[in-house]
User: Fold these one by one.
Assistant:
Number 1:
Amino acid sequence: MVTASVEAVTSNLLPDAGTEFGARVARRLSDDKLIWLTTVGADGTPQPNPVWFLWQSPGTVLIYNRPDANRLTHIAHRPQVALNLDGNGKGGDIIVLTGPATLAPDATRACDNEAYLAKYAEDMARVSGSTEAFSEAYPVAIEVTVGRLRGF
């Protein structure tokens, strides 16, 4: 298992891209379409949900949400979250990021975010009819500040 801790965030959160693990982490954060966001409910139960995400260097993950999403209440009361990329189905290719999530009221709307559009425009139109309609349905942005990354 490889771990990058909070101390590493100040220099470089991601593992060395010259290593197999580092190259895989960078590629998956850029290319994967889904990540599992796990918040914690009021009763202490973990609440995992697959979400679309955008990796933002040097170490945040942007996620757009519906205003009525329970995860927003969870984050308001218990901001520590986990983000997991799907494994390979055989117990490998595991990447887990953890850190606090906060509302990002100044974030660009999804339909105006060039990087988000490059990754999801087709999907946004498929789900909501247009990128603008998606932005109206998912107007609440959160950012997860990654403090720790681990995987193998």
Note: The beta strands are 2-4, 35-40, 46-51, 54-56, 60-65, 80-85, 95-103, 140-145, 148-151.
Number 2:
Amino acid sequence: MKKRLLFVAAIVAASTTFAQDGLTSKKGEAYLPEAGDWSIGFDAAPLLNYVGNAANGSTNSTLTAPWMNGTVAQELRAKMFKDENTAYRLRARIGTGSTSADALGKYDMDADATTPDVDYVVSTKTSQGFSVVLGAGLEKRRGNTRIQGYYGGEVMFGLLGGPSTTISDGRILSDDYDPGVRTTETKAGSTIVFGLGGFVGVEWFFAPKVSIGAEYTYGLGFQSTGEGETTTEDWGITATEAANDIANGTTTPNHIITETVKMGKSGGMTFDTGNMGGSINLNFHF
């Protein structure tokens, strides 16, 4: 009887050990997320490129990722686990950026070949504008091992500030220097984006509460871009001034003519994959 009890106890212990094998670490830490857990994730591609190319000298050996380029390639992702198989998803991206550059040179400002040319600077500044992208969704999970499958749906909304470029040209327009029409500023309209779609993915927990996964999305997207404008300057007189001179026998002196022209709106709709080839994600749960 005693031997039988010992045998049954051994079977129960072995079954318990087998059921938990691979789901807890040697320290007793759970690998998989639990109810009430949060996670923070990000695109793992820049990190993988860095690790994979660290020894090749220069190619993809900097730990960087695309930012404000009109897409949502890099963003902060968070989850809140309602239970072991259900999670609420949130994602956000907020930012802005600008660049500037100077071009130096010399030009003939008085149309006199006997005088030296004069230095000038053309300063160009480009601003991306303020952009924000927000998303929310529901995720369902399956699997009883450290490899977890998941699926679900989400909605996204974004406001992408249109880029603007300002050009300050140090070459002074005059009767002696008239290069024709030149652009001084361009402003693109802001873009509103809206998306509704689904996702499917797989996640491998290679350490307690730390995972790497691949995700594929498909959905419906809308976008609308508002009017932009282009501002130019030229040397001379306007058509109205020329007509008045003819009618009144006057002569209007040449001057800088500034003109702003509106650019049209645009919009579109797509139903397609949200991330061609899928995405690789690194997630930390706590």
Note: The first strand starts at residue 38 and ends at 43.
Number 3:
Amino acid sequence: MKPKLYLSITTCVIFFACHGMAYDFSTSNVQLLRGSGYQLGDTDRTIATFELANSYSLGDFFFFFDATNPFTDGTSIYGEISPRFSVGKIINKDLSFSIFKDLLVTTTLETGNDIRRYLYGLAIDLKIPYFQFLKLNFYIRDDQKIENDYTMQTTIAWRVLVPISITKLIFEGFFDYAGGEGDKEPNIMAAPRLLIDIGSFWKDPTRIEAGVEFQIWKNKFGVKDVNEFVPQAMVKYIF
């Protein structure tokens, strides 16, 4: 897909996803994370994150951006814009059967400090007991800094709720596998989170979650043998 065409489509989707659309579902949150032991850069980091997700008449939309060390000099920014288009919604037909929920055309723009990547492909959504969602995305990945090359990427995202007494345990996160591209090695990144709905303790459920996120990265940024495992304390406020 040509970059200008991709950006035009993405701009249109962001506009319609955020203005005047009737949502089937919409949520947003802010997060604060703190960890130590990062590779390739500052060892200790604070990360502030904003996330937006919604589902509407054409598919769904996910957007986030991270500000790393937002309270000090040298703040870095990274974000992803991920519109997906539901085949079932577009043809107005229920495609679900057994654990299969829907087939989608999936796209992502990854951008930040000196980063620009385009991803596009197909996705499958599954319906599994206790899972709020389970999304499997299969991409062609094109890093704009690497000429005449591309690779494949698989991304899995999930969220599980388990009731415990008056509260809930939340297990959520994502897993990425990206193939080698240019002189970069294949790399695996995962960010599983284990959180508690602490808002339930003062009768404000599903508003505040806290716990730990594990940042796990093999061949970080495609650099061979640079591996990372960092537990991060995390607090999330949901709008």
Note: The first strand starts at residue 25 and ends at 36.
